[in-house]
Amino acid sequence: MSLTRDGMGSALKRRRPAVLTVVGVGATLGVTAVVVVVLLRFGGGTKAVSDSAALIGALVALGGVFTTQLVNSALEAQRAKQARKTEEAQRDQVRETLQAERERDRELEDAQRLRELEVGGQRAQDDAVQAYLDQMSDLLLDEARPLRQSAEGDEVRSLARARTLTVLSRLGGVLKGNVVQFLYESDHPRASAC
Amino acid sequence: MLCSSCTSLITHERPLVDLMGANLSNAALVGVFLSRANLDRTNLTGANLTWADLSGAFLGGADLSGAKLYDAKGWTEEQLTAARSLEGATMPDGSKHP
User: Is residue A66 part of a domain?
Assistant: First the structure.
């Protein structure tokens, strides 16, 4: 029973206040009309109606209170619903803002990491070239077994080739070009006339 | 540039450093002197050899696909046909090799 009343109450609350006003006023007028008709028919005519004016007035007042209560409840429910909607919208907005901030932070972190990798990679390549040039200089200037005086198949040539191929495989285009230029320009005399 | 009596570490008459099979892909060799260089079977895909001096360079078996040879100097038909591939390369006259 209480469930039914609650159900009816919430159903009424869900209605628009304007509709509930019409329902409340209609119900009040309906009940008043029924009372007046009953008094006219069975209570002794107009005299009974005028005698019961206070009762009829009280009925109308009660209907007014009932209608006001109904409309207030509906307005309150409407306001609560609106507030919930606003709160949800605000929460969604905050969530979206936070999500966007997180994504922006992640993108910045990724970009930073990429920059560090690039810088690290470039530094590693520069270091590799520097080490290669030092090693090749050692091979070229070695007093005991200089690369320049080596014969085909000598270990020093294999070493120079292995180091060159290794460093080339690790470098970007510009540094590869620099290594080739170094190899080309590290000329050595074929004859003493140079 | 080398003097007439000198040879570089990679000239093909007497290479001290054999670059055969070296990975020179995308190498920036713009305007570089490579005359008589031994580039036997090197990977030169996408290398930029614009204005490079290729006179007498050995390109046998080299992969020059996608390489830029625009306005390269001293090259011969014989040199370029000895390359393994020239697919998509920009030829010295600016045309694209099929």
Answer: yes
Contact between chains at B7 and A177 (C-beta distance less than 8 A): no
CA atoms within 13 A on the CB side of B69: 30
Provide the residue type at A171 as one letter.
Answer: L
Q: Which residues from chain A sit within 8 angstroms of residue B51, using beta carbons?
A: none
Can you give the pTM of this predicted structure? Answer: 0.59
Per-residue pLDDT of A107-133, as tens digits, reads: 998 998 888 888 888 888 999 999 999
Instruction: Say if the Cβ atoms of A176 and B14 lie within 8 Å.
Output: no
Residue B33 contacts residue B55 (beta carbons within 8 Å): no
Task: Report the run of H or E that residue A60 belongs to, with start and end.
Answer: helix A53-141
From the list A187, A181, A189, A191, the residue with the least C-alpha distance to B2 is A187
CATH code: domain of residue B98: 2.160.20.80
Pairwise CA distance, residues A38 & A32, whole Å? 10
